[in-house]
Design a protein that fits this description.
The complex is a heterodimer of chains A (116) and B (114). Chain A is mainly β. Chain A has strands at 3-5, 10-14, 19-21, 24-26, 32-39, 46-52, 60-61, 64-69, 74-79, 88-96, 105-106, 110-115. In chain A, strands 2, 5, 6, 10, 11 and 12 form a 6-stranded mixed beta sheet that branches. Chain A has a 4-stranded antiparallel beta sheet with strand order 3-9-8-7, with no helix packed on it. Chain A has a two-stranded antiparallel ribbon with strand order 1-4. In chain A, a hairpin with a 6-residue loop joins β5 (32-39) and β6 (46-52). Chain A starts with a strand and ends with a strand. Chain B has no helices and 11 strands. Chain B is globular. Classes of the chains: A mainly beta (116), B mainly beta (114).
Chain lengths: 116, 114
């Protein structure tokens, strides 16, 4: 079974600085998708960024980018120019591809604190 | 579009009571999911459905039942609530196939069982 590991329960960064959240996963599949979700105190799950395993190019969305290392099964999230609104829980998630209906497998999350 | 909605937002039950959580989506999505989130844990899949009239077990299905009588609705039932079912419950949906596999989440239901 696939597993997703987030080894940093909590991270703290100064406003305007850059922070990287780590995620590793274990799978025997070659077709899969990876996601970072943000969960602010409102508890709404918000998709931050996605990465298709077949794409070599790292995904970027404005201040958010990933470092996808397929061979190492690593999928880190970099947040540049951190803002107070970035403070939240961040979850890494995996889903197998191939057209199935699998649910997402989540890591335990990283609590990101932004220091003003 | 309201997206994915969940009813109720909060509920307190006594041990042994029953209740049903309702999830509704207006995006015509085929696939729907129920997850639970416990402190210090990510979301874990309870049950899911690939279409009207179909359901399947996820990672933590014990103590729950589900039904998908209409495409837009996915119900999660607790027949005899236990304190271990105290959690935040999320519903999600997504389209069939497509390249994205993105799931759209509801706002969650906080359930406390005393």
């Amino acid at each position: 079974a696939q597993t997703v590991t987030q080894s940093q329960p909590e991270m703290s960064v100064q406003e305007a600085e850059t922070v990287t959240l780590s995620c590793t996963y274990d799978t025997s599949e070659s077709d899969y998708y990876l996601f970072w979700y943000k969960q602010p105190p409102s508890r709404q799950m918000i998709l931050v960024i996605r990465q298709e395993a077949y794409k070599q190019q790292n995904a970027t969305e404005n201040r958010f980018s990933v470092n996808f290392q397929k061979a190492a099964k690593s999928f880190s999230l970099k947040i540049s120019d951190s803002q107070l609104g970035d403070a939240a829980m961040y979850f890494c998630a995996y889903v197998r591809g191939g057209g199935g209906a699998d649910g997402l497998t989540f890591g335990k999350g990283t609590h990101l604190i932004i220091q003003p | 579009n309201a997206g994915v909605t969940q009813t109720p937002k909060f509920r307190v039950l006594k041990t042994g009571q029953s209740m049903t959580l309702l999830c509704a989506q207006d995006m015509n999505h085929e696939y729907m999911y129920w997850y639970r989130q416990d402190p210090g844990m990510g979301l874990r899949l309870i049950h899911y459905s690939v279409g009207e009239g179909t359901t399947a077990k996820g990672e933590v299905p014990d103590g729950y039942n589900v039904s998908r009588l209409k495409k837009q609705n996915f119900l999660l039932g607790l027949e005899s609530a236990a304190p271990s079912q105290t959690s935040v419950y999320f519903c999600a949906s997504r389209i069939t196939g497509g390249p994205l596999y993105e799931q759209y989440f509801g706002p969650g239901t906080r359930l406390t069982v005393t």
